[in-house]
Amino acid sequence: MSAKKNGQRRGRHAKGVLPEYGSRTDVGLVRDHNEDSLCVAPPVFAVADGMGGHAAGEVASEIAIQTLIENAPQTADGDGLARAVVEANRAVIRAAVDGRGKQGMGTTMTASILDGRSLVVAQVGDSRAYLLHRGTLQRITRDHSLVADMVEAGELTEEQARVHPQRSVITRALGSDPNTLPDIYEMTLEGGDRLLLCSDGLSSMIEDDVIQSVLSRRSDPQLCANVLVNEAIKAGGFDNVTAVVVDVKGDEEAQVKKARFRSRTGAVIGALALIAVLAATAFGSYAYLNHVAFLTVDANNEIVINRGLPGEFLGFETYALDHKTGVKTTDLDLPQNTIDRLTENGGMRVDSVADADALVDTWKSQATDQKKQDDASEGKAGDK
Ligand code: CA
């Protein structure tokens, strides 16, 4: 599956110690089209930044992502992932020849497979993979760009590279040379690590220390993706912006999460197991229930924030209404999967009331941005 064009996807994998993730892509404030595409199909996550103009860039990035999904292995197999990227390259070249795209179109590809704690990343171009490890941001990938070569040669500093007029010239892309190969990075991660994949519309607009701060402070991966994209837009939004955030779960944490998301049909045995797992944590169950929160929608479509977990335990509700937000889902521009998560299975769970409020704020600003873009394109259409 892929998601793109002002969309967001979030979710968690069904089996075992597998990641929670969130993603968002946005056209930004300057461009007419969103040429970025992304993939969140656990264990495969990827970002592709297309180029070629006149809508060809988005054709290139979509074909590359689709081909990647069809060919990527389901384990952290570096050779297998490299073969899938080579296949994506061939598919983009074919599409330019057979008329689905245009000659000269191309795309970057930063593709990853996170299988438990084993990570493999394939890299072509200047989209990036970052790792937040114990609070510190590390860049995993090396850009294939003119300015990256100049930085390595000592001709430019990172700061000069960020504003260099030729900063978007890339030295390797999918779609031109059939012999192009990706760089492959393989590593073992720790529980609690967080992976970020992004297009240069994010990494060129905001500095690494801002990225580190957002990834460290926000507990929810979807909220992180939203905030990062909003920061890039606030900084100017000169390019399409895409962020995919994936969390690596520890064993213990995975157990708690599993218990947290147990359906209410789990009855008392389930609830006892939940309390046992919660009690085993440092917080204690009361503190835990008092801290976590979830968002639901009331009969008037208004988003409300509840403290606790949806459901009941021994006849007592395990939550209480914290506050109503005054925001209706009909006032927002939410993707269907977000609306489904608000309305199904007891609501959308987050780590705190503050996270819930921040999420609603993000949705409000997204709706405002979208309205501005719609008004602007209506204005343009009116001028013709
Ligand atoms: Ca870009």
Small-molecule binders here are: calcium ion
Distance between the termini: 37 Å
What's the alpha carbon Rg, rounded to whole Å?
Answer: 22 Å
Helix content: 25-40%
Task: Give a description of the structure.
The chain has 384 residues and is α+β, with helices and mostly antiparallel strands. 38% of the residues lie in helices and 27% in strands. It has helices at residues 56-71, 78-97, 146-152, 158-163, 200-203, 208-217, 221-234, 251-260, 267-280, 285-291, 336-343, 353-383, and strands at 2-3, 8-12, 20-26, 36-41, 44-51, 106-107, 109-115, 118-124, 128-133, 136-139, 183-188, 194-198, 241-247, 293-297, 302-313, 316-328, 348-350. Strands 1, 4, 5, 6, 7, 8 and 11 form a seven-stranded antiparallel β-sheet that branches. A six-stranded antiparallel β-sheet has the order 2-3-13-12-9-10. It has a four-stranded antiparallel β-sheet with strand order 16-15-14-17. Helix 1 packs antiparallel against helix 2 (78-97). The longest helix has 31 residues, at 353-383. The protein is globular and about 65 Å long. Bound molecules: calcium ion (CA). Residues 49, 199-201, 239-240 line the site of calcium ion.
